[in-house]
Amino acid sequence: AAVSWYEEFQRLYDTIPCVEVQALKEHNDQVLHLSFSHSGSLFASCSKDCTVKIWSNELDISLQHSSNMRPYNWSYTQFSQFNSDDSLLLVSGVFVGPHNSSSGEIAVISMENFTLLSRVRNKPYDVFGCWLNETNLISGNLHRIGRITSCSVLWLNNAFQGIESENVNVVKRLFKIQNLNASTIRTVMVADCSRYDSPDLLLDYEEQLAASSTCPVFDLGSDSEEEEVRPKQAPEPAVQELPAERDVRAEPGLQQLFDDIMEGVRPAMTETELETKVAELFVRNRTKPPELNLLPTESNSKTKYLIFTTGCLTYSPHQIG
């Protein structure tokens, strides 16, 4: 009955009654995350006590299962997500490796008998990970290129890695993304926004390309053991024009800097500044535009979006990709 959205927000925020019906005290340290199943009948909780607990969301909430991840060298559990049919649970946590180095790990738990199906390394741990579909999940890896530049790689993993045939690929590389100024890709999620597609809500292709020019996706070169080998084909005449590739050439100043470095001339800048400039040049020269012929054209096709936090000015994430 409110006359404005702000009054409606105040009504929902301030006047909805909240009644505590039950206190769950099974965790013995700080609870970091809660996730509900799509049916709403279950929810999972992650905690600094290094357990993930699965609860039945009935009138009288009851504990269904508890998994302790300390035997797998986890420090704590930090995130969980049910797959779309609620048959599997993805659990993300911090893994303590050799010399107390911390990265992340993702575990997949079956909701049928609460068995641990697979574990996937996840670096850095604040990538968290997410489901792409019912049986495949996305994890991350990080490769250092210099002191403040790196490359984030996102991998597609099969949830049943230890069960499938040895002839079935259980991992596939999805993206490599250049990171500047010590930033990394974090908080990865997949959204199915096909039902919200509207020309009024989408930027056109030119604006998207311009908006993403600071932190573009690029190809670092093929890895024969990771990618399918495709037969070579003669290039079509339309491909030889490559108008988009000319648009992403380096600026004259950056190109001159690169030429000086190749000739052994040391620019008047610090090592960190030089590394950032070279990384920026590398990104611009290696960026490839999307292949429009591979984009879905049918109106009923399911479009999914990869969403993550990142940055190009500082270590702290300040942009959404």
From TrEMBL:
GO biological process: protein ubiquitination
Each WD repeat, start to end: 24-56
Keyword NADP found: no
PROSITE patterns referenced in this protein's UniProt entry, alphabetically: WD_REPEATS_2, WD_REPEATS_REGION
GO cellular component: Cul4-RING E3 ubiquitin ligase complex; SCF ubiquitin ligase complex
Keywords: WD repeat
Name listed for the protein in its UniProt record: FBXW5 protein
The organism of origin for this protein: Oreotrochilus melanogaster
Upper classification of the organism: Eukaryota, Metazoa, Chordata, Craniata, Vertebrata
Gene name of the record: Fbxw5
